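Table S2 (text version). Query chain:
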Amino acid sequence: GVFHLAAAVGVKLIFENPVDTIQTNIRGTEIVLDLAAKKNKKVQIASTSEVYGTAQYVPIDEQHPLQPQSPYSASKIGADHIAMSFHAAFELPVTIVRPFNTYGPRQSARAVIPTIIAQIAGGANRIALGDLTPTRDFNYVHDTCRAFVELAATAEAVGEIVNVGSNKEVSIGNLFALIKEIMSAEVEV
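Corresponding structure-token output:
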């Protein structure tokens, strides 16, 4: 099978080049799907929880309304719809996988966990984080990968959208406190 994880990402890139983001994410997905259909390959589409936008209710399930709040989330919604159209029109075995916040080794420094760790490790006395009240559902990268692999082997997942999360909300403030404790740091937000 095919694991389609390629996408245009990064806030700066997305907002400076929204058309490139849309082309990469939607057209790129269509190319992958077309080739998979020609080779009769099952496809796991890496979507994102960002397609849901600001939560209207929690936990966010697969029926939650889609809310494109950036060119990135809009492009991922479009890519998901293209994928499902290939399933409906061409019977291509497709699964849309929507991971929530994945973290782990080699994660981009722009993500919240590496941001906190880097500031503490850099000796900062005060950490710049912004609003501490939003909550996230964090998943270790190995768990996210395991979900992709298990879904690829599950016939019942074909034609489905599957959220991948821990179902545990963690506020940014509590995340900061936990990292601070683990790193034995005397630091404030």
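Notes on Table S2: The radius of gyration is 18 Å. The chain has a mean pLDDT of 95.
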